[in-house]
Amino acid sequence: MPSDRFRAHSRPIPSSQQKIRMLGRPKFVLASGSPRRLSLLNQAGIEPDALRPADVDETPRRGELPRACANRLARAKADAALKSVHLDDELRGAFILAADTVVAVGRRILPKANLVDEASQCLRMLSGRNHRVYTAICLVTPKEAFRQRLVETRVRFKRLSEDDIQAYIGSGEWRGKAGGYAVQGIAGSFVVKMVGSYSNVVGLPLYESVTLLGGEGFPIRFGWLNAS
């Protein structure tokens, strides 16, 4: 029969989830000021301790492909947020989640429209055509390891009349949106077909984000809403 001393040393090593439970709720930082991304995380019961929007140049590089652009910008936002967290004693060791969404027709990356002319051009390019929405997510773990995923959704718009375009421009929904539209608003009525994640088009692929967080030991299962 094994001795009590042997039994004491043969206890199973706690998993990362169990360690987090013992240590208490970890800090979580969203490297974005997007209300849409925040709302999506709230749906999963995740409430960030802080928002750290990253001030990075989001201009695509010459000849850069959509996937590469999204991945690069998500990593740049994560890097910027990590530097900010280093300056805050209360947030050091936090999980940090950054994301970047790119809308593309073929290899052409559409802008995040801020001007009427940009939005009008985007809508005319999307009218009656297929396009792809890529969102790259980049997670920084408490040990400052970087984990990244890229999610793609294919979308087809109906053919838009000039009245459709002008009415949508008048709504103002397009401001600051990748590709010049917000699928969770009026533009949802333009969608003929969508293949892939809807939340990805909104701005954060929720399934992939939650899976990535959970895989790194973030306490998804018992949730933030009931955590103390």
Automatic annotation (TrEMBL):
An annotated Gene Ontology molecular function: dTTP diphosphatase activity
Active site: D100
GO cellular component: cytoplasm
Enzyme Commission identifier(s): 3.6.1.9
Catalytically driven reaction(s): N(7)-methyl-GTP + H2O = N(7)-methyl-GMP + diphosphate + H(+); dTTP + H2O = dTMP + diphosphate + H(+); UTP + H2O = UMP + diphosphate + H(+)
Domain of life: Bacteria
Record SUPFAM superfamilies: ITPase-like (SSF52972)
GO biological process: nucleotide metabolic process
UniProt-annotated site: Important for substrate specificity, residues: R36, T101, Q184
UniProt entry keywords in alphabetical sequence: Cytoplasm, Hydrolase, Nucleotide metabolism
InterPro entries documented for this protein: ITPase-like_fam, Maf-like
Cofactor dependence: a divalent metal cation
Location in the cell: Cytoplasm
Family label: Belongs to the Maf family. YceF subfamily.
PANTHER family noted in UniProt: BIFUNCTIONAL DTTP/UTP PYROPHOSPHATASE/METHYLTRANSFERASE PROTEIN-RELATED (PTHR43213), BIFUNCTIONAL DTTP_UTP PYROPHOSPHATASE_METHYLTRANSFERASE PROTEIN-RELATED (PTHR43213:SF5)
Protein function: Nucleoside triphosphate pyrophosphatase that hydrolyzes 7-methyl-GTP (m(7)GTP). May have a dual role in cell division arrest and in preventing the incorporation of modified nucleotides into cellular nucleic acids. Nucleoside triphosphate pyrophosphatase that hydrolyzes dTTP and UTP. May have a dual role in cell division arrest and in preventing the incorporation of modified nucleotides into cellular nucleic acids.
This protein's name: dTTP/UTP pyrophosphatase
Organism: Bradyrhizobium lablabi
